[in-house]
Design goal:
Layout (H helix, E strand, L loop, with lengths): L2 E3 L4 H9 L3 E5 L9 E5 L5 E5 L2 E6 L6 H8 L2 E7 L7 E12 L5 H5 L14 E13 L15 H6 L4 H10 L42
Antiparallel strand pairs: 1-8, 2-3, 2-6, 4-5, 5-8, 6-7, 7-8
C-alpha cells in the first residue's frame, strides 16, 4: 500500500539520495501535446534543498522539453525506484522552475552540488522543484539490477565546448530553443555565468550558505 509523506527527510531522503538514477516527467497543457520522460543519472547532480524542495543540474543535450514544459505550466513528477534492496518507488509531484545561468540565484544553487563539476557537462540550468505531494508505493514488479559504473561519455563530449561553441551547438538543434510542440525552451543566445561564485572552484564553493529558491 502506498503512503503519503509531509516531508522529504529521514528514511525517505536516504532512499532518494542513494539511487544512481531518477526520472522526470512533464507535459504541456495542450491535449495533444507531447509528454516527456527523461532519465537523470550524473552522480552528485541531485540535491535535497530542504524537506519540501529538491533540485538537479540540467546539462547539455539535444532537446529541452522539460525546460519548455516548466516554463509553460510548472508541473513535474520525479520518480526513484529501487533496483537493489527492499522494493520501493518514490514519487515527488510538484511545481518546477528552470533557473538559468543569468539568474541571481544560479551560482548559489550550483554550490549545492559540491560532488560534481558541472563545467564539462555543459550546464544549462538548475531545475528547482517544490514538492506538493510526496508518495511511495511498492516496487514488487521492478527487477533487481546491479549498478556497475557511471558513463563518462557525456562529460567527454561536452568538456571541449566553451560558451560560444555550446551556444552554437544549441542553436543548430531543432528542439532546444523551442520544444517539439513549439513552446519556448532554452533561452538563446546562452547567457554567460556572471555570478560572484562562478570564478570559484573546489569544495569550498557555497559552503554553509542558505539558498532562497522562491
Amino acid at each position: 500500500m502506498g503512503k503519503e509523506y509531509e516531508r522529504i527527510d529521514g528514511r525517505l531522503r536516504a532512499f532518494i539520495e542513494a539511487q544512481p538514477v531518477f526520472f522526470t516527467a512533464t507535459a504541456p497543457l495542450a491535449d495533444d501535446g507531447t509528454v516527456n520522460l527523461s532519465p537523470k543519472g550524473v552522480t552528485g547532480s541531485f540535491a535535497v534543498v530542504d524537506p519540501h524542495t529538491v533540485a538537479y543540474l540540467d546539462f547539455a543535450g539535444s532537446n529541452a522539453e522539460t525546460i519548455a514544459h516548466l516554463r509553460e505550466n510548472g508541473r513535474i513528477t520525479l520518480m526513484w525506484c529501487a533496483f537493489q534492496g527492499p522494493p520501493d518507488i518514490v514519487r515527488v509531484h510538484g511545481r518546477g522552475e528552470p533557473v538559468f545561468r543569468d539568474d541571481p540565484r544560479f551560482e548559489e544553487l550550483v554550490a549545492l552540488f559540491p560532488g560534481v563539476d558541472p563545467v564539462p557537462h555543459g550546464l544549462r540550468a538548475v531545475i528547482v522543484v517544490h514538492a506538493e505531494k510526496i508518495r511511495d508505493t511498492c516496487g514488487y514488479a521492478v527487477p533487481f539490477m546491479a549498478y556497475e559504473s557511471e558513463r563518462d561519455l557525456h562529460a567527454k563530449r561536452f568538456a571541449r565546448e566553451d560558451d560560444a561553441s555550446l551556444d552554437a551547438y544549441f542553436t543548430k538543434k531543432e528542439y532546444i530553443a523551442t520544444s517539439m510542440d513549439g513552446l519556448p525552451g532554452l533561452p538563446l543566445p546562452l547567457p554567460p555565468r556572471t555570478g560572484p561564485v562562478a570564478a570559484g572552484s573546489g569544495p569550498e564553493r557555497g559552503a554553509g550558505k542558505d539558498v532562497v529558491t522562491t
